[in-house]
Each structure stands twice: as structure tokens, then as C-alpha cells.
User: What shape does this take?
Amino acid sequence: MSTASLPAAASPILAVSRLCAWYGRAQILFDIDLTLARGEVVALMGRNGAGKSTTLKAIMGLLDRVQGSIRLEGADIRGKPAWHIARAGLGYVPEDRRIFTELTVMENLAVGRQARRSDAPLWTVDKVFELFPNLGRMRNRRGGEMSGGEQQMLTVARTLMGNPRVILLDEPSEGVAPLIVEQMAAMILDLKHEGLSVLLSEQNPAFAGAVSDRACILEKGQVQFDGSMRSLIDSPEIGRAFLGL
Amino acid sequence: MTLASLLVQLLGGLAGASTLFLTSAGLSLIFGVTRVVNFAHGSLFMVGVYTAWTAGQWLRPILPGSAGGFWLAVLLSTVVVAALGALLEVLILRRIYRAPELFQLLATFAVALVLRDGCLWLWGPEDLLGPRVPGLTGAIPVLGMPFPRYDAALIAIGPLVLGLLHLVLTRTRFGILVRAATQDREMVSALGVAESRLFTSVFAIGAGLAGLAGALQLPREPANLGLDLPAISDAFVVVVVGGLGSLPGAFLAALLISLVKAACIALGTVELGGFSFAFPRLTLVAEFLVMAIVLVMRPYGLMGRAAAAPRSLATTLPAENAAGAPGRWPWGLLVVGLILLPWLAAGSPYTTVVLVDVFCFSLFAMSLFFIMGPGGMHSFGHAAYFGLGAYGAAIVLKASGWPMLWALLLGPLGGFAGALIFGWFSVRLSGVYLAMLTLAFSQIVWSIIYQWDDLTGGSNGLTGLWPAPWLSAQVPGATANAAYYLLTLICVAIAVLVLRRVLDAPFGLALRAGRDSPQRAESIGINVHAVQWAAFCVAGTAAGLAGVLYAFSKGSISPDLVHVGRSIDGLVMVLLGGVEALAGPLIGAAAFTLLQDTAGRSFDYWRAATGVVMLLIVLVFPQGLAGLFRMRRRPSTT
Ligand SMILES: Nc1ncnc2c1ncn2[C@@H]1O[C@H](COP(=O)(O)OP(=O)(O)OP(=O)(O)O)[C@@H](O)[C@H]1O
Ligand SMILES: [Mg+2]
Assistant: This one.
């Protein structure tokens, strides 16, 4: 580990501890501990229904009942409204895309636009279109008339317009063409390069392995493995046990 | 009828469509973003009419005889009502965005009650005549017929506002946020948009539109306290017909309904094959007929879309807890006590009179609970079945001359027949749409009763409905109405028992399964629509019986029995008691009836008082009184 990343490791940008969450009366998450260092990509893995999306939603303030602590650079954000959390620098890309189908590409980006932040890279429409050239070619197309892959890019682009420090990215590879999956992987590495931290929910081990520094495996709402991507790849029995590989 | 007179009628319809559209646009905008159906919207319209009147009074000495004064008053009342809307949003609505739909409707209805009494307090009960608008008095000739100048101006205002709203919605960031939030407000919030500020501004704009519509209406109609309910039910119909949340849809629907009404008036009485049919009488029901037809053909309105299920919001009521119902003994003791009461309370004869009301409304509330709690169908027109039962019995008694017992047995079939017809349509919809359709049906029943003088006595109603002599006879040592009191008690107790049995039977389980997950229920072989339809019929019959018992206790009936207000009373009773427990509706009906009886006799502002109680229930005790009791009794179980 290089000396430069040491202070980051000492004070993670996002620290989740003993996180519990419920849907109605059903408890879904049980004492989740999780950290994300500055500029780090962490893959949150696990089978269908393991609680990956729920973890991201709980962090984003989208669930009614959550316990534990969620700290963004030391400040506790648990219990704050979602818009407040977003303004604190957390960007959320939901799993089912949820773009505004009635709005054009430009209008979708306008919804995501936030004031510039001194501690995070500034995104403009032009810079976003550099990252996603196809979107630049369909500025006035309505969201509902775009392909799945294009919609996926638009969700990411829309979140970037808020100049986030941390991105919660929920299964960007799901249901899109292999070519787009490759683009998504390249994009995540680009974002990492810009200094962003990414918490990535992902089922596809190849994809997760290619972009992540660390992995955290959930099973039935509990953390079963937390370590470097390297160590996960080196111990296939873990993958067999929790990822069904 | 000449072509010219038809044309003038239709133009008048267009003028009416403008204010109708403005009110509805506000309602639609608010619903689109906040998902709250604002029952107080008609009251905001009414406040607009009144504030325009007051502003006019102030401005007249300052700007005598100029049109500027009128338009300034219009602007002022728009702003005042917008501010009032913002205040309501911050104080009340903000707290209930996550509450079940039904609670939201009740909270806003409570606001409507408070606003109505607020107007009574500020402006008094007399009608206030509006000004003539300088420069727009008189008429212009249309094919030789006079057409009011002011109406011509109104015709232009509707499309103008539609255009303006369209510009704001497409060209400004605020408009983009409104459209985005209409589709997915949670996502908008997750992108860093402060929901609270967006919602407050949308509410203010929606309220402002209602205020504007009200102010513009003042020259056509005097300010009076009866404006709120028609305004809200018209706006509901327009929004539902147009499709919830769609402004062009609302515009189209406003045009359609206004023109259909105008055409009805223009057609006049038509002779057809010896029958004479008075079309103008149809105006009262025309809009509801249009709505019923549109909803059956396009369940989401002319331009509406199947609303994506709102995300992560509790939209259904908590399920009632059959196992938690109080045991048999307390109920048995209560019934025995009530049977002895006429003798125990011989000194205060009014007690048993009030209790007959309590019994009737307990059954009414229980029957509403039957489709609302386990059935999950929130009927906003349950008074229709109550009224149909009462009128059914009265007509049997008057027309046939059969003994009263026959009327008692046959009357409830009136409620059954109504439920059979309306239920068939209603079970095909759900949520707000079902609520509105049931409201529409009850309004149709009301209009028919109101207009069919020969059969129903019209607005005077029917009198002389006294129970058989043996039921009116004095029972030795008891209160004056003891015999009828006992009859009511027995009938209601049996009916409530039957309803409870039905809910515990497989039928009740099927009903709940259909409520909780229609798809799953269908997949295990339950015909959900059929079960719900049957539930409607059972509830309609029970409500009909309640109506019959009520009619004979009063001796006379009037169309008021079917009024929207009574349907809402029923909802309040059920909620007051709490939908979670089977005992809820009984407790709620008793509490509500006694409360209204005392408040109504001693206090001018009892509506506002009811409103405040309703707000308290929704904001503080969402589980109702029964929930409160249960919390006390079994604190540890959840
Ligand atoms: N809205 C909801 N209401 C109730 N339970 C839910 C809801 N959403 C998810 N769950 C339950 O929570 C658990 C975790 O779901 P979650 O969506 O977090 O899983 P996931 O790991 O993201 O799975 P996937 O890979 O399928 O996206 C599952 O058992 C699921 O059934
Ligand atoms: Mg998921």
C-alpha cells in the first residue's frame, strides 16, 4: 500500500457501522459494517435478495426504518432526508434506472444539477457528454424513447451532474449489452481516476473484479466477507459459498 | 330551440369551462407532485370568491369605476389563496405525505370543514353579491342573441392559463422539477432537490389557481357558503375524467363536461314517442354520467396513464386484526345493559332517542368498514345505500300500503340493488379512482331522489313514516320510544353479528386475500372481482337496513340522507374507531354521533370542531380510538 493512501484508510470517506434496515416489519439488514476510502471502488456482492440494493437505499436515506450509524466524512447522515444526503455529496444510481421518461436527456440532466462543490470534481453538460458521447447526440430525445443501455448511461450522467464525492452505483451491468458493460467498466475507472469513491452493487464477478479494489459479500442481510478483490479471487471457495459460482 | 340559442348556450358552457379548468388544473398539479387528492380545493376556490369580494370593496373607493380595480382584486385574491395554500402545506399536508391515501383525503376534508366555518366567521351567512366589471358589462350579439361580454373574456382566459402553465412546465427548471416529481418524486429527492420547498411551491400554485378561478367567478355568482362542495366535486370529476395529473386532460374534460351540460340545457324538454324528457334536469347528473362512462371505458381517464405504484409509500391501510377483537363477554354484557336501558333511563327520555341514532350509524359504519377494512375499497359514497334503503322502505310503505314490517324487510333491498349496480363498476377500479366513482354514484342517487318529485317528494322528502302502532306504544315504566329502541337494537346486533361471521368465514379470508395481493389471490383460484362485488352487495344491504331503521325513527326523510357529507361522516366514524379492529366502527360511530349531537346543538362552528377532531385523529392517533384501547390492553404485542 502506498503512503499516499494511508490517511485515506485512516479516515474513510464513507463509514457504515451496525446498519440495520427494515421493510415494514421485515428486517432485511443485520449489523452491516462497511467502509469506503477516498478514491476507492468497493464491490458489494451477493446473490439475488441478499440485501445489496437495500444497503444502498439505506445509506441514501430512502428507507423509513434504519438503525446504526452512517458517516460521510465523519458527519452522521443517518435519518437525514435523501435530498440532504445528496447535497452532502452522495450520488445515487438506482438499479432500475428510474430516468424521467417524459423528460428529454437535457431535462433529465437539469434535474440532477447541483451547485459546485469545492471538494469534488465539477461536472458540466459538456464534460458529461465527453464521458458518454452517445448521449450528446440525443440531447432532445425523451427518456422513454431510449434503449436500455442509453438509459443506464443517462442515470449515471444525471447523478454526476450533482458533483458527488461518493457514488452508490446499483448493478450498472444488469440487462445491458456486453459492449455497454465494457463502457461502464471503463467509466467507473475514469471516475476513480477523477478522485471519486464508488460503492458498487454487482453480481457479475468479472465486472466487479475488473473495477474494484475491495469486495464485500452479503448473504441474507449480513456481511460474510470483507477483503481485497485479490484475496477473493484467490479463494474460490468463498465465491462458491456465497456467490454461487 | 334555434341555432342561435344553442350557440349562445354552448358559448356559455365554454366560459364555465374556463373557471372549471383553472380549479381542476390546480387540483391536478397538486396531485401530480404530492399524490395528495386535495379535498380542500373547493374551499380554496370559495375563499378566492370571498377574498375577491373583500378586495373589491377595498379597492372600489381607491380606483372608482375602472376595470383595473377588478383585475387587481382578482390578482390579490389569487396571491392570498396561494399563501393560504402554502400555509396549509407546511402545517398539515407535509405531515401526511407518507400516510395512507384515505387519511390524506380525510385530513384535507377536515381542512375543508375548518375553512368553511372560517368563511362563515369572517363573512357571515348572507350571500355577497359580486361587482359588475367595468368595461365588460352588457352583452355582445351572437347571431342576434345577446352573449355577456364578461363570459367572452372568460372563454379566452382558460386557454391562456393552459398556455402559460405549459410554458412554465417546459421552459423553467422549476417546471422540469415538477414534471420529474410527477413521475418519481423519490428519485427527484435522491438527486438533491429539496422536496419540501418544491411541494410547498406546487401547493401554493395549485391553490392560487383555485383562488384565481374563484375570483373570476364572482361576477357570475354571489359569494356564498355553499360553493365549496360543488366546486370540489366538479373539479374531481374533471381531473378524474381527464386523467390524474394531466393538464391537457383536465382542459379537455372541462370542455367536454361544460359542453354536455350546456347542451342539456339547450335541448330543453324533448317529446319522443309520447314521452316527454326534460334534458335540463340531467345537468345535475350529466358530469357524473360522463365520468362513469369514461372511467368504465378508460379506467385512467382520457389522457391519464396507469399510475406507477408510488414507491416505498405506505398506500394501504394497516390490516385489521381479527384475533385482537374483544371477547364475547364484554359484548354480551353491553347488549344486556342496552336492553335494560329504557327502564334504567326512564327519567331522561332523550337517552334512548340518541341511542337509536347511535345504533343506526353503528351499522352504517360497520357496513362501510366491511368493504373498506377487509375489502380495501374506500367508498366515498356509502350514504347512497343508506338513502336507498330508507327511500325503499318509505316507498313500499306509501305506495303499497302494506304494513310497516314489510317495509322494514323490503327496504334494505334498495341498498342491495344500488350496491349490485354500482358495485359492479366500482370493483373494477381501485384507490382514488374507486373513491371518486363511488362518490359519483352517490351524487347520481342524490340527484335522482332530489328530482323525482312524484316518487320521492323531491327536496321536501317524504313524511309520515311512523313505525307500526305496536312499536310506538308506550312500554310500562320505560322511555317513550322503548319499543322501537329495542327493535333497532336487536336488528343492529343481529346484522353486526352476521357481518362479523361473514368476515371470519372463508368469504372474509378471500376478501382480505384480494385486498392484499390481487394477483396472488387470483392465482389460488379466487375470483377477486366477484368476491368484492358480493362484499359490496352485503355492505349495501346492511347500510340499507341502517337507513330503514333511521327513517322510521325520524318519521321523515329527505335527500340529505344521501348527501356527500353523510358518506364522509361514515368514513370519519370508521377512522375514528380505527380500521384495525372490528370493534372500531362501532366505537367510532358511537363517539362521533354523540359528539355531533352535543356539538351540533350548542355550537355554531361544529363543522370546524369536527374538522379539528379529524385532523387530530389523522395526525396524532392514526390507529383510531380502538387502536388506542388495544395499545393499553396489550402493550407488548406488535
Ligand atoms: N420494497 C420492498 N418491500 C419488501 N421487501 C423488499 C422490498 N425490496 C426488497 N425486499 C426484500 O429485501 C431483500 C433484499 O432485497 P434487495 O433488493 O436489497 O436485494 P439485492 O441484493 O439487491 O438483490 P438483487 O440482486 O436481486 O437486486 C429481499 O428479500 C427482498 O425480497
Ligand atoms: Mg438489487
Remarks:
- Chain B is about 70% helix and 5% strand.
- Residues 149 and 613 of chain B are 46 Å apart (CA to CA).
